[in-house]
Design goal:
The protein has about 375 residues and is of the alpha/beta class. The protein has two domains: about 1-10 and about 265-375, Aspartate Aminotransferase, domain 1 (Alpha-Beta Complex), CATH 3.90.1150; about 15-265, Type I PLP-dependent aspartate aminotransferase-like (Major domain) (Aspartate Aminotransferase, domain 2), CATH 3.40.640. The protein has ten helices and 13 strands. The radius of gyration is 21 Å and the shape is globular. The structure holds pyridoxal-5'-phosphate.
């Protein structure tokens, strides 16, 4: 199988990730519950993953890293726990439904939002931003890179503007964590949401967030935390008070080894490999007949995914043919991001997305291009 849906969920993972998940699954121990050796060992494993994530994201207050099931949950905890009736939020026009749907729900609670338009390539000009702030704007929420257009949003400028307007800056790193540099201090990120199973190379079922100390957050879930058990109210201590119920220790621990693998390889090497593969893919796609590529032209201005549309075929037709006849996995449709497709002008029919992995080689890209060439006809 040639797998080009890494922006959906990455495959394969580093071998150590599979090994860790299997080993920890066999070992037992409920973290933070009791002082037996199995529980203490499980707590240690969670801490190791916090340490690795702290290193990757420049986080020193590790207790402010909270584990969830995925980034969708993280964003929900953030939006529902930080905002109050009367608040106004700004988002970009390439946000995923993980952001848009909670905000649509929050409208019922008197919370409003505005969408800052990106250009059709999914690029956001920070100079346009000032216009959208209102006296009650409390939060700016942006994806670091579009999961449809691949465009990278200018985080540093956005963080600065959010601070100038006294706003909380929330970043969805689903498509960039583990590939692009992220530093919560340098980029002034107050709330960083991550998911484990994409470019962080971990398993499904684990994600999380970081929230800067001093910012108040209401939990979404209340219950057992393993600490302050006599108190019937939720303890206001981190991370325990934000992690009610047993965490997915095997997945969190495996995620930690995925992040350690990334740290060993180095972001620069991972990113350069991605750019090299993307250059080959973009060049090859340009030579195919009837293909329109979405997103920025320069490989260095985008993350490792390329979406396109076809003059003569629907995205689903091509995806189906690649799957059935060539054993090549791609993703057709709206990618849970109708705002991004509206921005690109592809809301009616969606697009076909090819997304890359650190473990692919140029010959994988050539195999994809050759299959596309046979389906479409052309010279790639
Ligand atoms: C930009 C972005 N945000 C959020 C998500 C949701 O990720 P998850 O399903 O891991 O919660 C995705 C996944 O497709 C994404 O690409």
């Amino acid at each position: 199988m040639l797998y080009f849906d890494n922006a959906g969920t990455s495959w394969p993972k580093p071998e150590v990730v599979y090994q860790t998940q299997d080993r920890v699954s066999r070992q037992g121990g409920n973290p933070g519950r009791g002082v037996n050796q199995a529980s203490l060992q499980a707590s240690r494993l969670l801490f190791q993953t916090r340490e690795a994530l702290g290193q990757l994201f420049g986080i020193t207050h590790l207790e402010r890293i909270i584990f969830t099931q995925n980034i969708t949950e993280s964003i929900n905890v953030g939006l529902q726990g930080l905002l109050y009736p009367g608040d106004h939020i700004l988002i970009s026009s390439v946000e995923h439904n993980a952001v848009v749907r909670p905000l649509e729900y929050l409208k019922e609670k008197g919370i409003s939002y505005s969408v800052i338009p990106c250009n059709p390539r999914g690029e956001l000009d920070p100079a346009t931003l000032g216009f959208y702030f209102r006296p009650n704007t409390r939060l700016l929420c942006c994806t670091h890179a579009s999961n449809v257009l691949g465009s990278i949003l200018p985080l540093n400028e956005l963080g600065l503007i959010a601070k100038q307007h006294n706003c909380i800056f929330m970043v969805d790193t689903a498509q960039t964590a583990g590939v692009l540099p992220l530093d919560v201090e340098e980029q002034q990120i107050d709330f960083l949401a991550f998911t484990g199973h994409k470019s962080l190379m971990g398993p499904q079922g684990v994600g999380g967030f970081y929230l800067k100390q001093g910012i108040n957050l209401r939990p979404l879930i209340y219950g057992g935390t393993g600490v302050h058990s006599l108190d019937l109210r939720q303890p206001a201590i981190w991370p325990e008070g934000m992690e009610s119920g047993t965490r997915n220790v095997p997945a969190i621990s495996a995620l930690g080894t995925g992040v350690e693998y990334i740290l060993q390889q180095g972001l620069e090497k991972i990113r350069q490999h991605e750019i090299a593969l993307m250059s080959v893919l973009l060049e090859g796609l340009k030579n195919l007949p009837g293909v329109r590529i979405l997103g920025p032209e320069d490989p260095a201005s985008r993350v490792g995914l390329v979406s396109c549309i076809f003059e003569e075929y629907t995205p689903e037709e091509i995806s189906f043919e690649l799957d059935q006849s060539y054993n090549i996995i791609t993703r057709a449709g709206l990618h849970c991001a109708p705002l991004a497709h509206r921005t690109a002008g592809t809301i009616e029919r969606g697009a076909l997305r090819f997304s890359l992995s650190y473990f692919q080689t140029e010959s994988d890209i050539h195999a994809l291009l050759s299959a596309l060439k046979t389906i479409l006809g052309g010279t790639a």
